[in-house]
Specification:
This protein has 142 residues and is an all-alpha fold. It is 89% helix and 0% strand. It is built from one helix and no strands. The termini are far apart.
């Protein structure tokens, strides 16, 4: 019976150690759960803060982009207006100069034609010895 007492006593110790281990494991599990909850809360708070900061930065970036685009649009419009005005002025000046040149060319051509006509007429009179008027009465003498 002595052996039975030792066996019972050994079983009692094993059971006590097992209970202690289960209690210890349960306590460790509670600690892990509490730490996980704290980590989850901290992560959630950090994510919220990061999201808020990202939203603010995106808004500032969008506002700056809009301002820059508006300034670029205005500068482009001003440059286009100046270019159009300069082109219009240049075209007017070119048209005026072309008109003047055409007038001068027409005058020179007319003068040259008159001189040529007079010279031909004189030459024809000399060659034929005829001082009579030409047959065409619509021609005006020079």
């Amino acid at each position: 019976m002595r052996l039975a007492k030792k066996f019972v006593l050994a079983a009692f110790f094993v059971a006590a150690v097992g209970c202690f281990s289960v209690a210890k494991a349960q306590s460790a599990g509670d600690d892990v759960k509490a730490a996980a909850d704290k980590t989850g809360d901290a992560t959630k708070t950090a994510a919220k803060d990061t999201g808020h900061a990202t939203k603010k930065a995106a808004t500032k970036t969008a506002d700056a982009t809009k301002t820059g685009a508006t300034k670029t649009k205005d500068a482009t419009k001003t440059a286009a207006d100046k270019t159009a005005d300069a082109t219009k002025t240049g075209a007017k000046d070119t048209a005026h100069a072309t008109d003047k040149a055409a007038d001068k060319t027409a005058d020179a051509t007319k003068t040259g034609a008159k001189k040529t006509g007079s010279a031909v007429k004189k030459t024809a009179k000399k060659a034929t010895g005829d001082d009579a008027k030409p047959a065409d009465s619509t021609t005006k003498p020079n």
